[in-house]
User: Fold this.
Amino acid sequence: MENKIALITGATSGIGKASAITLAKMGYDIIATGRRKDRLEDLEKELPSTSRYLPLVFDVRDREKVGEILGSLPEDWKAIDVLINNAGNAHGMDPIQTGSLDDWDAMMDINVKGLLYVSKAIIPGMTERKSGTIINIGSIAGKEVYPNGNVYCGSKHAVDAITKGMRIDLNPFGIKVIGIHPGLVETEFSLVRFKGDDQRAEKVYQGFEPLVAQDIADIVEFVVNRPPHVVLADIVVLPTAQASATLVQKNLPQ
Ligand code: NDP
Ligand code: 8X3
Assistant:
């Protein structure tokens, strides 16, 4: 029997990479995307030989490229069962009055429009086959707003709304639409947010035990393993030390 196929955006790092490896171990063939070609090549070494692998290098902001590449998948890669819209980041963490237009463009273009471009290319195959699972990686920042989170929170609130809209519109086709909304996960996320300032990035995760990418990949495994009549529609997952977007108990005695 042929393997099922999963497409994961932003699989060069963090949550996307862990999810790609986990799905491959579950027996999925993997389409992994990202801008860093070398990382996508390295990922192949971490996948079991029982899975086929198709790395695709593109920027999700590039509407034409996304349509062109995903619209011309090889015949035996077209029937995508699981789409994980994961590519995204925060860029900067400034009050609204001093935030950078470039950062705002990046977050709206990648987190929101990129997710839409990829979805637009993949959904028609799912509606035609009347099957599929779409997992959108939102955030606690899509459920709450925190100081200086303004536009990133806006982008993730948009992901939350789009996820709900997808679930409604794709309901007649039997397509599962799932939102996973993590709190603090230690990945390259803060390094990107703080533009390579590793000391500032490390501080975010000090004094408590944050989630790791595999914690989210474990949830991906669980949700795709549910029987056909069950969908885990909306999941918020936090480190135990985190109670809300802004409340994290740090330096508790172990
Ligand atoms: P990482 O920085 O480790 O990974 C981000 C991934 O997104 C990379 O693979 C990167 O690939 C890809 N990406 C970023 N920009 C683009 C782009 N323009 N085109 C294509 N791919 C892109 O962060 P995480 O793994 O933590 O983040 C993954 C998702 O999880 C994001 O949507 C993030 O908002 C969300 N999230 C993260 C949380 C956290 O605390 N870490 C919490 C809640 C949600 P490349 O650079 O190679 O293009
Ligand atoms: C990432 C988690 O709290 O930095 O989405 O916004 S947070």
